[in-house]
Amino acid sequence: MSDNREIGLSTADYYFDLPQELIAQDPMEKRDECRLLVVDKKTGETSHHIFSEIINYLEPGDCLVLNNTKVIPARLLGEKEGTGAAVEILLLKRKEADLWECLVKPGKKLRPGARVSFGGGILTAEIMDIVEDGNRLVKFFYEGIWEEVLDRLGEMPLPPYITHKLQDKNMYQTVYAKYEGSAAAPTAGLHFTNELLKKIEEKGVDLAYVTLHVGLGTFRPVKVTNVKEHHMHSEWYQVTQEAADKINKAKESGHRVICVGTTSCRTIESAADENGHMSECSDDTSIFIYPGYKFKVTDCLITNFHLPESTLVMLVSALAGREHVLSAYEEAIKERYRFFSFGDACFFYDR
């Protein structure tokens, strides 16, 4: 790889034309019955499957890494006190008890000091400050338990390309979601059922659960021409000793570490030392993985189909090669696979 064009350092290198009708608007009724495109990351060779057949590609001794973050109903619709103007507040990151960093619409009307009411006054908020990227620090006021108030008033923060209303909040949540804090789901995990996970464990595959609270920075479009100039937002992660031990065991015994989703991948690549060894830890990460990156821990990746020119396509390209990824996407489009959060899955593997 001798020049920048080959390495894929231009954002345009990750463009592909996606027909609008292939963007999945609703989740599958049965999670593990979506389609699965299996891609050999060394050769680019592909085969077509149903997601539940992923088990045939997992071997005893492998370690499957899953992100057990839980999406909070972070989208609040209210009105500005005094004018009654419609307002949307999206919770991004908890700063302290009732103080959150938020994305607000319309931003021009929500300067520091502005107050907002939700649910007829069950919840109120005051804009305290303007921070990076025009986000707001927002203080919330309510009676009772925050989680219960939020569950009552909040909506799941579905990506803007999903226009259908979600009928069941749980369908934008993995079956193993445990720790609340995400503004978006780790969508590759949506395809797993409890039954499938049980069968995978019975086959002798270790399940290692890590936590990364997904922020909206993951979906932020890359607006720079040179990939290297893109700035990733930080997200909080945690790796337990139990998860670290399972991952280390797989690596040390010559088995594969298979990440479920880009968030699991970014977590373990952030947490590992330069030799790929894992220890218990928690921190913020703004790791940006694109071609040229040397993976320390991740061998294979189960993931959804991502947006053109996104940091997620760049991450997958770093693991499996840009040409293989774009060729697989071209085939998926030809075969009418469903794309993005509620779409079908892809497994980039090596034997």
Care to describe what's here?
The structure is a single chain. The chain has 351 residues and is α/β, with parallel strands linked by helices. It has two domains: 4-71 and 169-349, QueA-like (3-Layer(aba) Sandwich), CATH 3.40.1780.10; 75-153, Beta Barrel (Thrombin, subunit H). Helices cover 19% and strands 28% of the residues. The chain contains seven helices and 17 strands. The chain has helices spanning 4-7, 146-153, 194-202, 241-252, 262-271, 311-320, 322-334; strands spanning 35-40, 46-50, 63-67, 69-71, 75-80, 86-96, 99-105, 115-118, 123-130, 136-142, 179-182, 206-212, 235-239, 257-260, 281-285, 300-304, 345-349. The strands form three sheets. The protein has a nine-stranded mixed sheet. Strand 9 (123-130) and strand 10 (136-142) form a beta hairpin. The longest helix has 13 residues, at 322-334. It is globular. The two termini are 24 Å apart. Mean pLDDT is 94; it is low at 1-6.
